[in-house]
Amino acid sequence: MPINDKVSSANSRWMDSDGPDADIVISSRVRVARNLAGAPFPHLLDQQKSVEVINEVKAAVENKEASDLIGSLELSLLNDLSPLERQILVDKHLISPDLLNNFQFKAVAISDDEAVSVMINEEDHLRIQCILSGLRLQEAWAIVSNVDDGLEKTLDYAFSEKLGYLTSCPTNTGTGLRASVMLHLIGLKITNQLGGVFNAISKLGLTVRGLYGEGTEAIGDLFQISNQITLGQSEEEIINNLVSMTRQILTQEQASRQALYRERREAIEDRVYRAWGTLKYARIMTLEEAMRKLSDLRLGIELKMIPGVQNKLLNELMVKIRPAFLIKTAGRELSKNQMDAARADLIRMEFER
Amino acid sequence: MLCEKCSQLPATVHVAEITNGQKQETHLCESCAKELQIHGFGFYPQMNMNSFLAGLLNYDFNSSNVNQVETIGKKCEKCGVSEEQFANKGLLGCGDCYPIFEEKMLPLLRRIHGNTRHTGKAPERTGGRARLVKEIEIIKRQLKEAISREEFERAAQLRDSIRQMGKNLEEGGEG
Q: I want to staple B33 with a disulfide (CB 3.0 to 4.6 A). Which of A121, A149, A349, B13 is the partner?
């Protein structure tokens, strides 16, 4: 599937919501950082050297031994995409926001199902990521490790026996591994328990980030939890630690939802139906309001209050209602007011189907 | 001291504003400070991970060198990054920087990860000894399992391959 199709569709395989516990664990993501032994790290590369790195990785991706192992990945230069298309890849979580800085020097290779993307010349020469629906970190790590093995057939990695994989930033040294889950924690939010949960998380070497990673805001009650430490623990240990912590949070989230429904049923129903009404009839909606209402609706879907609406649609909407996709759909620049109106129109149409 | 805004939490953020030579101090708790920032009265300095790390490194430099101006650090021959550049930016220049700046790197890595020894995956082709050591560990585990299941023929095979790999390790020297 060419990159044009990927940026035209809001859907990605991970949004299908068919993974285990996908009602609360929206996605599982694993990425590793790798660098080529011969070249300076990306922040020191000029245009020509960056192109050399991109070409070297391209050859490794297209190498027969590698593609037999990992399937085909389609490589695109970020420079060949429009600013909107680049932003849509970020909105779909296929590339990191960092890949947009100095995009002339960067590239990405994405698999057909969009589960695997290999970012080239981000903070490190290679960032290999896999994103799947539901709580499937082990599977995501197996896929990433396999792609890693495939590329290593021809690429020489910067690696030290003592310190592991060598990365630009010392926070990634060792395994270069960042594993994360995106969680919908509306129950813990309403019952004011998020602080306690996040406190516990930070004591266990994990960290909470916003929807689009480091330094981004958490909106729509969505939080990303990921490992902090990359050196001294094996990949399996890091992932198992995050999985067991996620299961804990999952159990608490389910318990708080049940308690809310049992004890404050009317208030919860009111909240969900208000959201449903707003989403179906409003004419102007900011991104923040839409994300909040979609969060309430997601809770309603799980409580079986909203028949016929799937989580998959909500996952796609989270991309469609962002500015890049709205502008692309409209085919022209939109003012803030026009954008809020276009967002409300789009949501209304999606729910009328 | 309590936060001046909410009077509930201890004030941990202290802001000094100087306007026309008049100094005005504000003492806030973290959540009130954050709230103010959200409302557009931002006074947190722009912080990102790299500058934060660079700060840590500079702190190390300053504490070990009384006269920091005269510090002339090492330089990586391969990528040209100097110790000062690394300390300012918080990013290394290439794989070769690691052994060159090891003295500064190890304490920093320990601070970040609580550890300075990689125990995870090693590359198949170029992992050298690390890969072998890990493989030996895996086979040792299989050997234990084989023995507990009384599969002695398989256990003997596994034992032989461990011996062979051990020999390869020794011959490989430091690798």
A: B13
